[in-house]
Amino acid sequence: MSSYKDNILLIKCDLSKETEVDNMFKEINTNFNKLDGLVNCAAYDKVLSIEDLTIEEFRHELNVNVVARWQCIKNAIPLMKNAEKPRVVNIASRLGTRPMEDSLAYCTCEAATIMMTKCCALELAKYNIRVNTVSPSLTLTPLGMQSYTEEEIKATAEKILVKGLEQLKIPQI
């Protein structure tokens, strides 16, 4: 009987480099010959106005936040066909449906991730591969912290709390 430790493989990979992503999936195939789940959660964002955003920076965000996610899904398909209940979860952002100033590239990437998920869900259903997106609200990660002021973080938290209380029909105190 194997332990969960026998099913863990740590691989360092720069998702902006196509060959590293391909090699990562080759290593997964060599070690396991299947993949039960894929969570695409890597992200990159450089907060820049439209005027300050360079073509190189925009392409880099697209490469990490959209192209690499697609490449991971594409590479996972043959391995997931060998799994019983294969699943893909793409972590997007609320900014995929709500614009934010100085975040054109990131918002565009997150919207693309949401649509990519819908397309993959349709196309991969024939293999019983389920594909979903989770789009969390403000998450206090280093990436999230660089995009918001302390006041915006507090305002977002209060808004979420009030909305949650309203949905639960709990009176505010």
Order of helices and strands: HEHEHEHH
Report how far apart the termini are. 54 Å
CATH-defined architecture of the largest domain: 3-Layer(aba) Sandwich
> Unreliable segments (pLDDT under 50, ≥5 consecutive)?
none
Structure description:
With 173 residues, the chain is mostly helical. Helices cover 50% and strands 8% of the residues. Strand 2, helix 3 and strand 3 (130-134) form a beta-alpha-beta unit. Helix 1 packs parallel to helix 2 (55-80) and helix 2 (55-80) runs parallel beside helix 3. The longest helix has 26 residues, at 55-80. It is globular and about 50 Å long. The termini are far apart.
Topology summary:
Layout: H1 18-32, E1 37-40, H2 55-80, E2 87-91, H3 104-124, E3 130-134, H4 142-147, H5 150-168
Parallel strand pairs: 1-2, 2-3
Helix pairs in contact: 1-2, 2-3
What keyword list fits this structure?
globular; 173 residues; three-stranded parallel beta sheet; mainly alpha; Rossmann fold; 2 domains
Short structural description:
With 173 residues, the protein is mostly helical. It has helices spanning 18-32, 55-80, 104-124, 142-147, 150-168; strands at 37-40, 87-91, 130-134.
